[in-house]
Automatic annotation (TrEMBL):
GO terms for biological process: formaldehyde catabolic process. One of its GO terms (molecular function) is S-(hydroxymethyl)glutathione dehydrogenase [NAD(P)+] activity. Keywords: Metal-binding, NAD, Oxidoreductase, Zinc. This is Alcohol dehydrogenase 6. Signal peptide: none annotated. Alcohol dehydrogenase. Catalyzes the NAD-dependent oxidation of primary alcohols to the corresponding aldehydes. Oxidizes secondary alcohols to the corresponding ketones. It comes from Seriola lalandi dorsalis.
Amino acid sequence: MVIKCKAALAWEPGKPLAIEDVEVDPPKVHEVRIKIVATGVCHTDWEYLYGQGMKVRPFPLVLGHEAAGVVESVGPEVTKFSPGDKVIPLFLPQCGECERCLSPKTNHCRKNWANMQVGVLADGTSRISCKGQQVYQFLGISSFCQYTVVPDTSLAKIRCDAPLDKVCLLGCGVSTGYGAAVNTGKVKKQSSCAVFGLGAVGLAAVMGCQVAGAKRIIGVDINPDKFEKAAVFGATECVNPKDHKKPIQEVLAEMTDGGVDYALECVGDPAIMTAAFESTKDAWGSCVIAGWTETGMMNVVVEKILMGRTLSGTYFGGWKSVEDVPKLVDDYMNKKLKLDEFITHNLPLDQINVAFGLLKSGNSIRTVISL
């Protein structure tokens, strides 16, 4: 049966989302229909609607990609999910069969990847429509809708006692930042770290550095209101670039006798990426780019790489999505991972534009939307 429900719909770029009545089709082969219970509001959602750092995707579409919900129904040939299962949808699939899934070197499965990036599922269409018009699914998810349909390779089944309004954050931001430190960066004990950007991804990176045993964790942000929160996650000190005349990379080099061992860029700004890279110590400094941009170009002085620094990127924190997200949920339930502390606001779906405003103003870390 087709389900009629509410969604926050983006009709065109640069315009506020509109709450609309939509229709969500039943799942097709290897697809699962989910009732979304809670969704985080991520900067990537805002960036696609209002910013300049994303590739063009078709409109109208329903944004949202960091969520948790309950399986409503399953399509033909689905064997790993049943109605009532608690789940987290995944913008990064894990089919478990391709060369990339079988390799320990990467988490970059490409099952349905090209289609999901442009807002459709395996057959080239979406499962959401409004007023007789197809509505595209952002990154194949569309969690700003009360129901959505995703491929069964883009879904993680989680434990039944997990609070969905908390673990939804593991669908993107927290996993990305935390994994940037512990997986991609492989931060070592007694090391020095600088985290650029203290939003949800950056704070998760701070948390990852602390869990890894870093001795010195320097948070970098132009909003000093975030410094107290950074300390909660393990930052030993914070720096505001606006308080210094010198470039921030020079400031950090002076603070750390030549540079930090690890720098994690969690903003998605190419200029900040360059600053992060140049803030690391020559001979062994390592910089991980976790901030998201699809269109920017980063400037790197070649000599700074030749002198022994390394530069790497991370996508979804390096986690194998289907198998690792349930483990992260377990870590949260066992109090090894913070989630509650990221959530600054809880709002209903009809206040989604307020949530975007809070995000852009710097007054929120994560707003969780209840559907």
